[in-house]
Structure formats: C-alpha cells, structure tokens
Amino acid sequence: MEKESYIKGRGAQANVKNRFHEMSHEMRNDFLEYCRLEGEEADPDKTQYLKVFPKTIVNKVESPDVGMGYSMNPYQGCEHGCIYCYARNSHEYWGYSAGLDFERQILVKENAPQLLEDKIRSKRWKAHPIVLSGNTDCYQPAEKHFQITRKCLKVFLKYRHPVGIITKNAMVIRDLDVLKALAKDNLVVVNVSVTSLSEETRRVLEPRTASIKKRLETVRILSEHGIPVNVMIAPIIPAINSHEILPLARAAAENGAVSIAHTIVRLNGAIGEIFSEWIRKAMPDRAEKVLRQIEDCHGGNLNDSRYGLRMTGEGKIAQQIHSLFQVAGKKYFADTSYPHLNTSLHESFKDGQLKLF
C-alpha cells in the first residue's frame, strides 16, 4: 500500500465488516473521484460522541483468567485508537465496526454514576472491587468534557467502596484529590499501561494516548501521594516491544510502581484483520516477522481462545517473555506487591454516611 494512504492519528486504517450485519460499506474509487472533483472530503475523520442510556453499568466478569470480578465502563469505544485493543470486537454488538468506528463513534453513558450508586446501595450487594475500564479507557479524551469517571469516583468515595482503575492517560492526575481520599482507607489501586519506552512505537501503536514521559510521570505522582500503582506492560507484541521488558520494568520501579503485569497480544475476532492491515502499512519492513511470531505464541494462529493460554501464549517465544518477567519481578519488585483492597467499610456506609448503631 502507498505510504500516503496511512491515516495518521488513528490506529485502524479502515472499517472492517461487522460480523452481525449482512451488508457492509465500501469506499469505491468512483466515489473518491467524485469527491475530488467536487472538492469534498470523502471521509472527514471526525470523532462523534453519542449519548446512550444503559439500564445497568456494573458487569460481572465471568472469564476465569481476567483477574477481576466486576467492571464498569463509562464509555464504549475508545478514541485512543490502540491497534491491538481486545475491546474493539465489543463495538460490533452496538452495530458499529471494530475498525475506525471503534475510535470515532464513542458512546457516552452519562447516567453511569447514578446506575453505580443504585447498584452498590442495593441490599444484596456485597463489596467487591469494581474496575473502571475493564473494556475501554475511562480517561480517554471524552472524559475531559463529560467527567463521568470523576463523578463515579466520588460515588465510590461516598460509600467507601473499593475501586480499581486501568488507564494509559495522564488525565487521571486531575482526580488526585478523590484518589488520595480513597487511598487513605486502602480503597483504590491504579493500573497504568506503559507498552514501550519509544515515542515512535507509542505513536503508531496507540496514536491518541498520553506520551510515555507523561505516563511515567503519572506513575511517579500517584505513588508519591500514597496511591498504589501497578504498571501494565501489556500487551507484549513479539518483535515490536518484546525487547523492552527489562527496561520497562526498571522504569516502572524507578517511578514508584509496586508491581508489574503483562499479557501476550492476541488478535481475536476482527482484530486479526485490523492489525494485519495496519502493520503492513505502518511497519512494512517487519510485518510478516511480527505476524509469524505472534502465531508462534498461539499454536500457529493469531489468536487462541483457550482460557489460561489465550493471554499468556505458549511455545518458545512466549516462554522467553515469561522468563524475562520473572527476572524483572525478582530484580525490581522483590519487596513490593499488588495491594488487596479494603472491602470492610462499605456496609457501614451503605446509605452514604457512617452508621453509628
């Protein structure tokens, strides 16, 4: 493909077919020529925010190898545009493509704070950590305007309920006041995703995310204020960031992280097609090498759906990656660990204030 055809500032380079739709859209050459002659843009590449009103917001996570019991997502779709993102497939359930639509059609759940409050005030609800961003980043660009995540954090604080956060955006620092209040009672942990120390790699992998410098600075600031931080070095993509494992672990430790975690990339569903098209445009010189090494981690396929193996991989390359993380853990995190959040306070604050009797 011609280099100039690359869509800068986006991860996906096209809209792939939605598996639930019989028909699909195609950008034909005659239409493109018509737009050129008329002086019109064939695709303005604008992000749209669409308000939706779900009936529930807290999701029970049934997958046994995810590492969380409950999650919630204030937004569906994510403007960060990470090319490897597993959440892309979920956009198809809403009637959109897992490709460019995932990055440009952002569904906004403005009633999320009220739904959350209703859920954790329920008599049947027993406190269990709820993770913000189990699917899409709760601090993506939309949050700057809508502030749904901040409102949800205030709900967690009001009811003294434990919460986890996963993000790759420095915007989390905006809510330092609420996070510090939660941390006083061991009610919060922040997972910051850092996938590379190279800005060049970051720009093509995750085009609208915070810079690496900003993310490491975020880890440091949170840590300095007593908020435990786990750094997600994920996903590891062979021949793209697999050589950075030890330097990334060292940078995480030096900035105050208490632990690191990782997964090996899996290109399930539509993501295999999206990633393959992207890498042949963004990294044509090593595209086939990367794709073959990913397949080597998943039994000859770009994806493995088996629980316990789908995110850890198998084979020699996967084993080398895991061995490096074992070395990193012993070298940089021998004296620290991921915190267990406090679930004992919530029942006493079920009505929003401490019960004395």
UniProtKB/TrEMBL annotation:
It comes from the Bacteria. CDD domains: Radical_SAM (cd01335). Pfam families: Radical_SAM. Keywords: Iron, Iron-sulfur, Lyase, Metal-binding. InterPro entries: Elp3/MiaA/NifB-like_rSAM (IPR006638), MJ0683-like (IPR040086), rSAM (IPR007197), rSAM_sf (IPR058240). GO terms for molecular function: iron-sulfur cluster binding; lyase activity; metal ion binding. The keyword Metal-binding applies. Residues 64-301 form the Radical SAM core domain. NCBIfam families: rSAM_PA0069. This is DNA repair photolyase. It comes from Sinomicrobium oceani.
